[in-house]
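User: structure tokens for this one?
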Amino acid sequence: MEFLKYHALGNDYLVLTSENPESAEVELTVEQVRQICHRNFGLGSDGILVGGKDSSGNAFRLTIFNPDGSKAEKSGNGIRIFARSLWDRKMVNESPFQIMTSGGLVSAQVESSGKFVTVEMGSVSFQSDSIPVSGKSREVLNETLEIAGEKISFCAATIGNPHCIVLNQNVSAEEAGRIGPLLEIHPNFPNRTNVQFLEVLNRNTIRIEIWERGAGYTLASGSSSSAAASVAHRLGFCDAEIAVLMPGGQIDIVISENYEITMKGSVTRIGKMSLDLECLDFEIPA
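Assistant:
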């Protein structure tokens, strides 16, 4: 099996290639994904991207696998990486093109000889029914829940995948690793959730730490940047153009009046990798 490997601000993905790059008809099992993504027993990555031309031939179709074998509806970094891989394989040029994810249709444009990608990510919603968040139908803003004996202030949002944005909490990798896994599987979030710890620095800058659903602590995330920036704007803390700072670097977000998100960030090519099928025969110790 042949892969291209990239990182987007330290968030790394493997792009599965095939002899027929026009085809998106490749399916991986949960066990295969976990094995391939494992940092010690596989190639190592934060996920796997599988895609190709859709049946109409007018767009591309993308499936996003988390390293635990689950599927993600949408990933801003994954979309940027997939777009860059299409550009590297000369399947697109620097004109905008569309990618269909299970979290919705997005538009991407590769710029600066592949080093940056801009994505029209779709619209953010704070509605509990859409995210989803349990309880009555409402906008999930400035709510409180108790976890690990502490009261946590949070907002929730979706941009095709679920997010819980934690407010007024220590923003650190340690805090993300302590509280993030508990929030990811909290009963309030029926489909589990991505978690961001938000610090507002000024009207145009925020800082976040990220615990990603199905992946764990993460250096950067495009959908997390979109959700956290939207919450900062919705609560009146920030203007519509926001730089999101993460341990891996910066993503720039622009928010329209309808909370449609434009995201721009870098992509770096790491190289080609070939997986020997013997790897898949080895059983990872429990």
